[in-house]
Amino acid sequence: MTSLPEPLSARDTESIAYHTIKDRLPVILSKIADTVYRLKNTIREQHGEEGAKELKDIVGGVSKLRNELQTDKPILPLEDDRADVTTWNKYLEEQTSLIGYPPSWFKSAWLYVECYMYRRVQEAVEKCKILKSLDVFQEQKQKAFLNSQGAILILLNYSMKIVKDLENEEELDVEKLFQQFTQVALWGNKCDLSISAGFENSQTGCPLDQVETLKDHILINDLKPLWTYLRASAPGRVDIILDNAGFELVTDLCLAEILLSTKLASSIHFHVKALPWFVSDVTKEDFDWTLQTLGRSNSIAMNFIFQRWKGRLSNKSWNLQVHDYWTLPFDFSEMKMRCSDLHKELSKSSLLFFKGDLNYRKLVGDRNWDTTTPFAESLRGFHPAPLCTLRALKADVQTGLAEGQAKAVREKDAEWMVNGNWAVISFCDRTVQ
Asked: Where is the Damage-control phosphatase ARMT1-like metal-binding domain positioned along the sequence (predicted)?
């Protein structure tokens, strides 16, 4: 490989990067301001005038950020006291030195400025004393989960049946189960609030039926080599780098359960975001709330699954990990250099599942790759352990396609790279410590 392709940027006015920064991000910021403002009476009752003032300051900070974005102002240093501030501000200096002028919203790398926006939203919260733990996306995430109850119940009833059959030593096709639950987790990624600009985007159809109806929409399907590898290496540690809360998280937890129940894995390590991120990304608080909500349900399946998953956390067959690296501006090829502790931790795994679009963008550096570039090449040396990405396409970056495949799918669907209706299961078994 010679020179790398350019990072995706809003400089290209035909790109999803331009559409995101021009249209989608301002809507997300407006929605944050509206959501926070609606809390004013509750906050005043709980925390008095000081709390109400902090709430007003958050709204003001978000509104200021929206204006900076829409007028393509330079990216500003962060000013709160969170531990990652130095890293962010040093990266801003690096970028300024690299390009010769201060980065700005429409001229700089899309991945950087979009990540920066969410970190700036958090800055407005971090500057508070009383409201420092506020999650400005909590209401949307919890609503999306509750509005997906029908689909969640179908999936949990089915999962309960499979778990009981396995416990009773029923003869089941483990490969078929693995493929089915992996595809359920894949298509769970369609439910992404950052793509719908924070508006309703819940799962309403039957997730099991969806596996069959959407099979032809998987552009790269590495389930066979993935199964061959996993069966040969089992049972080992499997890591899932999570994406969205709500229905998608439940699909990921069900996949984790099946991997353990079929002895394809000995333990599961879940990786969550350290702060509210890209509207619907999973934090530890979201993870805990999801399990608690299942435990409060009158549903037999939800209660059965809750008790089982609570037990998995207790016996450490499930482990939850939080790391700042997932909410920094870097792609994953930089991890070994910038964050060797996380790279070393991931290298303990026998398989890494990277969920969703943002993780895919960070895997391949969010660059303007030719779609036929081999997936392993686009990882640019990031091989802590064998890895698989489960991704519904929502950004105009993709590697690993066959010659002519992009043209063929574009003729069927002009929006194929960005509408979440097409997906990839890309597996790379290379390991380079």
From this structure: 20-407
The angle subtended at Cα 321 by Cα 319 and Cα 323, nearest 5°, is: 170
If one looks up domain 138-428 in CATH, what number appears?
A: 3.40.50.10880
In angstroms, the Cα distances linking 112 to 84, 192, 208, 368, 404 are: 15, 20, 36, 15, 31
Topology of the domain comprising 16-126: Transcription Elongation Factor S-II; Chain A (1.20.930)
With 0.85 as the threshold, say if the pTM is over it.
yes
127 CB-side CA count, 13 A: 19
The one-letter amino acid at 314: S
Name beta bridge partners: 355: 390
CA atoms within 13 A on the CB side of 163: 20
- Residue 319: partners with Cβ closer than 8 Å, 6 or more residues away: 267, 268, 269, 270
User: What's the pLDDT tens digit per position in 17-48?
Assistant: 999 999 999 999 999 999 999 999 999 999 99
